[in-house]
Amino acid sequence: MAKGLGDARFQSPKARSMAGHLTMNFPSPPTQFVKFANIEEDTPSYHRSYDFFVSRFSEMCHSGHEDLEIKTKIRMSGIKGLQGVVRKTVNDELQANIWDPQHMDKIVPSLLFNLQHVEEAESESKAASLGALALAFYQPAVPLKVCIPEGKTVMVLGSLGRSPSPLQAPEKEKEIPAELAERCLRELLGRAAFGNIKNAIKPVLVHLDNHSLWEPKVFAIRCFKIIMYSIQPQHSHLVIQQLLSHLDANSRSAATVRSGIVEVLSEAAVIAATGSVGPTVLEMFNTLLRQLRLSIDYALTGSYDGAISLGTKIIKEHEERMFQEAVIKTIGSFASTLPTYQRSEVILFIMSKVPLPSLHHPMEMGRTGENRNRLTQIMLLKSLLQVSTGFQCNNMMSALPSNFLDRLLSTALMEDAEIRLFVLEILISFIDRHGNRHKFSTISTLSDISVLKLKVDKCSRQDTIFMKKHSQQLYRHIYLSCKEEANVQQHYEALYGLLALISIELANEEVVVDLIRLVLAVQDMAQVNEENLPVYNRCALYALGAAYLNLISQLTTVPAFCQHIHEVIESRKKEAPYMLPEDVFVERPGLSQNLDGVVIEFLFRQSKISEVLGGSGYNADRLCLPYIPQLTDEDRLSKRKSIGETISLQVEVESRNSPEKEERVPAEEITYETLKKAIVDSVAVEEQERERRRQVVEKFQKAPFEEIAAHCGARASLLQSKLNQIFEITIRPPPSPSGTITAAYGQPQNHSIPVYEMKFPDLCVY
């Protein structure tokens, strides 16, 4: 036994005896040490140290003895010894600080090592039990002839088929090191104070790194579930911070390792959200979004350094994609546990990270920059969709504030079809508050929408205010989305779902009228075809209008309106099925190659609809007006406007109740001749201005000094006279009740009289 174990540190002979036995590899002293640890002392020993016991018990926990039974006993003894050390020291601040890293780096890995091998032990025991069971069923009972002193022969059945005694099974189960290690770890973490969490968690992370246990991630998730359920709830955010820091430290590790850390973070964050996550909410999302951007860069460049060189580790793109999906899933699962106000903050935070072509968010140029921008936009919108799914907010003004809605709808005008689809799905997630979205997953013209069992609620005052403020913005983006040539079936299904949900969640009479005008404008778009849309897009727009008008007519329950819609749909079924969703939105759509000569019987007529709805109390005058979206500066994001469209843009604001309507001059039509004349006139004006400047310069260069001085003097005298007139008008004496006198120039001028000489009426004097 080492001399260091002597009297200075171990005042008790019993402690010296146990240390000596441990040095000589006796597995029994841990039981005695546990009894010693349970002894309550009145005064603690300030000179007692447990370094040797921690080291020796940790070594016993890692025993690799050839005999399985002896190995199990040694490991059990080591775990019990560590448990005794923890119980002896953890609650007494005057004892040796067991939470120091030098002790935690031995205790925690020893417990995890025994936890780690529980799967192997279970698999071995299952294999052994299955083998014994197979032998019991398939091996016949062979008589064994055994010679005994009397010379008799006894038949003995093979004992492999016997089941163990039920009295022995509990004893076997109690001696599993993994269960004892788990209890000890839970006890250790349950006693951890605020300042000790970091020292207890760091060895766990190091152990998982050293043994490459992030990739299967089953054991890592199990460890952190034990940790999260064992520590005090108010300390949960400290574990989240440790995991986030570890994820940042491993930002250049393999994608499988980072995926494992993110999966563990997801499980831990959900548990922590039930308690307290403290200030780590936005920090967690910021870290995850930063890792998402790094992963996109890795996938594009193919290396962690941004350039492939000799010895650079090549990145597998599919692994990075799996990591990105894991991050998005984690963002959604954690956000789903947050209260509404924190979820709103997270939504705004994620949206602020989406790169947009504006002054505040400069876009990267070049092919690589465009790919990076696009992938970043898609991943962030996916994350936003995960967060918004299931979001319940009674007030739409809070759910979709102006700054968020403006940025989101700006994204809806981009060229990329996938990005536009994500924006539509996000809007649907916010607006759908009664779970009606899945009922509009397919576009159809049902004769009776009662089979959908829609949950319809009355539009609240807050929703009415929201629609008054943002309805035209929403309609405009829906209209512009319908014009996109790259639209596919998913886009039209999302547009139909958005129109239907607005009608159910946010509609009043004014909104219904505007939505009908919008859909009729979409029908006109397909009929006139100024955008030169393909045949499929035109048929899809006709079908979209038919499905929505069929829905809104049954929601308004106006019989004449329903009858008109039904008649047009029946006419299309007989002679133009390619204008109905049942024939368009299928795997093999039936299209017509000639859509230019569509007869009026196949179209929904605005005059007829305004007539029938006007008789039921709706605003017939507003229904008669065709819907025309007002183009704004956001349209530059679409990158599709031609010069002709820009020139022909005419904004005309009409007010039907204005008294000056008759006096208005109609807007001048801008034609090619008008533009040519304007250009020629501007050139002539520039020539005249240039000639005038030349004459002035020449005059000052060649004219005699007296002429220049006289010219400048005349200008100075003219300026002085103008100033005198201004001073006369502005600087006047205060008014006087005595009247006015005539000035020298024949103009009336006020004259000031002292107050004591003024004559006031008798009624004003008292």
TrEMBL record:
GO terms for biological process: protein localization to plasma membrane. InterPro entries: ARM-like, ARM-type_fold, EFR3_Homologs. It comes from Eschrichtius robustus (California gray whale). PANTHER family: PROTEIN EFR3 HOMOLOG B (PTHR12444:SF4), PROTEIN EFR3 HOMOLOG CMP44E (PTHR12444). SUPFAM superfamilies: ARM repeat. One of its GO terms (cellular component) is plasma membrane. This is Protein EFR3 B. It comes from the Eukaryota.
